[in-house]
Design a protein that fits this description.
alpha+beta; 2 domains; two-stranded antiparallel ribbon; 6 strands
Length: 89
């Protein structure tokens, strides 16, 4: 995690790789930095939503355009009489 000058937190993925010459000696270093802030925030929101959906007393289903379940919460699995592991897989 890094702090920008304005105080905003940014999460970075940094990859450092050696660059070799023809004789195999390291002559430079290549660095790639990717801003992972949005992905991290999306994962945190998804985890919070998953927690919330699994801690309500009601059944919750998400059904896609092909009429298939994309998500069912634990209460839905209980109502269907299916183990949670096989229900959400």
């Amino acid at each position: 995690m890094r702090l920008r000058k304005d105080g905003a937190r940014r999460y970075l993925s940094i990859v450092v790789s050696p660059v070799y010459d023809s004789s195999g000696r390291v002559v430079a270093v290549s660095t790639i930095a990717r801003d992972m802030t949005e992905q991290r925030q999306a994962a945190q929101k998804l985890a919070l939503l998953n927690f919330a959906l699994n801690n309500v007393r009601d059944e919750a289903y998400l059904i896609n355009e092909q009429a298939r379940f994309d998500y069912v919460n634990d209460q839905s699995c209980s109502a269907l009489g299916t183990a949670a592991k096989s229900c959400s897989a």
